[in-house]
Amino acid sequence: MKRITVVGTGYVGLVTAAGFADLGNRVVALDIDEAKIAQLRRGDMPIYEPGLAEMVERNVKAGRLSFTTSYAEAIPGAEFVFIAVGTPQAVNGEADLRYVEAAARSVAEHMTAPLIIVNKSTVPVGTGDWVAEIVRRHQKEPIPFSVVSCPEFLREGSALYDFMNPHRVVLGSLDPEAAEKVAQLHLPLRAPILITDLRTAEMIKYASNAFLATKISFINEIANICEALGADVKEVARGMGYDPRIGPLFLEAGLGFGGSCFPKDVQALARMAEDMGRHPQLLHAVLDINADRRRMAVERVAELLGGDLTGKVVGLLGLAFKPNTDDMREAPSIDIARGLLERGARVRAYDPIAMDNARRILPEVEMMPDPYTLAQGADALMVITEWNEFKQLDLERIRDAMRQPVLFDGRNIYDPARMAELGFVYRGVGRGHPLPEAVRNGAPPPGSNMAHP
Ligand code: UGA
After folding, report:
1. Contact in structure between 218 and 182 (CB atoms under 8 Å)
2. Whole-prediction pTM value?
């Protein structure tokens, strides 16, 4: 049993605190937000994450997990302090480190014994060294400490599973002994542990997220080309994925990536490169392609409705940036809804759990109680989030409720042939489009040097 303090009770902090408590450690979770700590003490979770409430309750009851707003209470006696505060994006794409700075300063001011400070927040390369300097400057007396970077790789919606079953644990430090102690904490997880230097560990996080985002933008670019040439991107991705050098994951074409991580991290990495005089061309292309996805979705629906969206009723199936979360951060639904509204459409939506969050961001969008009410009188429906419950809808009932059976499937959850059979005017992403005139009837393949036979 080790004594751990986790600073920050957002996604990463709360899951880290609950996870380490569940592994048998004594964990104090600290947040400066009094309302949030009061809520957590009542057993009420500030975020939706499957299994989290149960895990928190179990560990609070067992006396292994507690919540506080007081550094004076949480720092003395701790052997490890995990920093898991937010690193929001500043207007210009830079990472805003003010919460990391405040946390480091408060830890320094309250430490009374040697400490290992572990950073879990996604921070620009070089932050670990900077945190060490802040701590040194704000200590009341010189007490030894080490800084270790331990980037988080969990996904929203399966965060607890990811915490307990990591593919790897990455630790970076200039102090191998400290890194070794943090490695010990992770031993029960039986994952490969990579110990490296601080900057390399920080970079591994950005490079991993940027690579995954690149895979998504890559398959979206292929989807665009598939539409023009009459190929099916879903099958293309399947055919590619069997090659172990490529792999099948993160090759779902659709509306692009959203959420609190990929958009922010790719921009931040590009910004770091530019600040150092490098030209991150690929990262810019990844972001451009991603932004285009949202414009493309609005454009497609406008095309299907004859070009003019004025007064047309468009229903959005799903609002969250991905299924199993109520998180609306950087959700494609936001740009898509705004794009539709700008073109004069009336927009309504249904999401199993994100509607409360969405209402605040999209007050002009009418929230509906279920998919069938959403379809009632609609000119078009758009699948925005691939919730499982949408895969099992009674599509005949949906079709009959609509004013026009137009369905844009932004996540490719339906089968184009079946949708056509049901009488829908259906478009997927990179599939389910009519073959363009230019490539029909034995025309020479585009990109070849042949003339029409
Ligand atoms: C992502 C990473 O997957 C985690 O490993 C990482 O720890 C986390 O960011 C972070 O840095 O904190 P998350 O943002 O929760 O996790 O979501 P993902 O499941 O990775 O999905 C991100 C976005 O990509 C979603 O909008 C999803 O719809 C989209 N996506 C994903 C696709 O469009 N196609 C795919 O094939 C996969």
Report:
1. no
2. 0.95
